[in-house]
Amino acid sequence: MKKGAIFGFGSVGQSMTKNLNEQNEEFRITAACDLDTKKQSDAVENFGLKAVANLDELLDDLPDFLLITSTSHVHPLAAKWCFKNKVPFLIEKPIAIDYKSANELAELCKNENLLNVVNYSMRFSPVSTKIKEMVESGTLGNLLSICLSSYRGYGFYQNGKRHPAIISPETSGGWIIHHLTHILDFAIWLAGDVEEVHAYTRTTAPEELKSEEVICSLIKFKNGVIGTINDQIGIVRDHTMQIVGDKGGVIETSKDGLSKIKFSDEAGAYRNATLIDPDPTNELKSGLHHFFDCLSNNKPSQMPMAASGYVTTVCEAMKMSAYENRIVKIDELLH
Asked: What is the pLDDT of residue 70?
């Protein structure tokens, strides 16, 4: 059995610990690190874990892996500790709340031979992996457009639904970096590097917070693909994907409560559409599953931090675009 630790014992860390320790015999969480004394008490009393306030307190009994689930502004601290002490880790997105820190970590990752996985969960869903396969196989032909929208289903600040990422953008990076990064990463995974972005935002939060709640953005990739990336924290909960190529297009849909892919072939009859089941076994997949698969079988990470710095850079370009009301070219931030 491999024993691990959690860095940040909030709702995400507690959920991961509960699920892992109840369902997995090969990997178990045995320690939690959090500055909050109440969360330390929860770790000891409700989960039977060792609780510490500082990662260095784990050096005498070094964990086999670390799950980084803290607030985003301290993600770099934990990641650097893992590199220093050669502890494989999974890190929640974003890896940092600004592009300079994110790219510093990305460069560090390139120079270290240590397993690390960024938990960009969209990459591991059955629908996403099937669409990626269709793009790479040429089923859709040359990509023309990508339109992605996410509806978080939490609620707006003015209605008393005050998400921590909205209340404290100084620790979350704001909603673009905290959440929109998920769907942006998926778009970049499909279409490659971005040339420019133009974003608009709205919020019901106080102006002084500078905390966006609704984002609508246009994006142009360096290979000519165009698209829209939209996100919002309001009470509506859903997500949509439309990917179009010159040979066909796909739309995410659902049937009997399960996600499916509707594929239309340009060579087919008018209004032709085929419903594709992306995963007949409906096996649950996630970044966490991928991390443990890599750890067990000595596989390389499909989402290392080395690639994640770029995603944060594009997120920051979107924020610049929204707050400065202009098109921002990504190269402005890279040079």
From this structure: 96
Secondary structure string (H, E, C) spanning 190-240: HHCCEEEEEEEEECCCCHHHCCCCEEEEEEEECCCCEEEEEEECCCCEEEE
Work out the number of other CB atoms within 10 angstroms of the CB of residue 84: 10
CATH number for position 31: 3.40.50.720
Examine the domain organization and report whether 262 and 201 are in the same domain. yes
Residues 184, 319, single domain; the answer is yes
Report the alpha-carbon distance of residue 20 to residue 29 in Å, rounded: 7
Note if the pTM is more than 0.85: yes
Question: Does residue 160 sit in the same domain as residue 19?
Answer: no
- pLDDT (tens digit per residue) in 25-46: 899 999 999 999 999 999 999 9
Is beta strand 258-265 parallel, antiparallel or unpaired with respect to 214-221?
Answer: unpaired
Closest alpha carbon to 34 in 9, 15, 69, 62: 9
> Which range marks the domain in which residue 272 is found?
122-282+311-333
Shared-domain flag, residues 97 and 197: no
